[in-house]
Amino acid sequence: MRKITIVGAGQAGLVLGTGLRKNGYDVTIVTNRTGEEVHSGSILSGQGMFNETLDIERELGMNHWDNEYPKLNGIQFSVADGTSNKAISWSSKFTKGHANSIDQRLKMPIWMDEFEKIGGRLLIKDVTLADLDAFAAESDLVLVASGKGDIVKMFERDSNKSTFDKPMRGLAMAYVKNPETANQDFVGLRFNLVPGVGEAVFLPALTTSGLCDIFSFEAIPGGDMDRFNGKITDPEEHLGVMLSVLKKHLPWEAERYENAELVDKNATLAGRFPPTIRKPIGTLPSGAIVMGLADAVCLNDPLTGQGSNNATVAAKVYLDRILAHEDREFDANWMQGTFDKFWEYAKYVVEWTNMFLLPPPPHLLAIISAAESNPKIAARIADGFSNPKNFFPWFMEEEAAEDYIKSFK
Question: Is the pTM of this model over 0.85?
Answer without folding.
Answer: yes
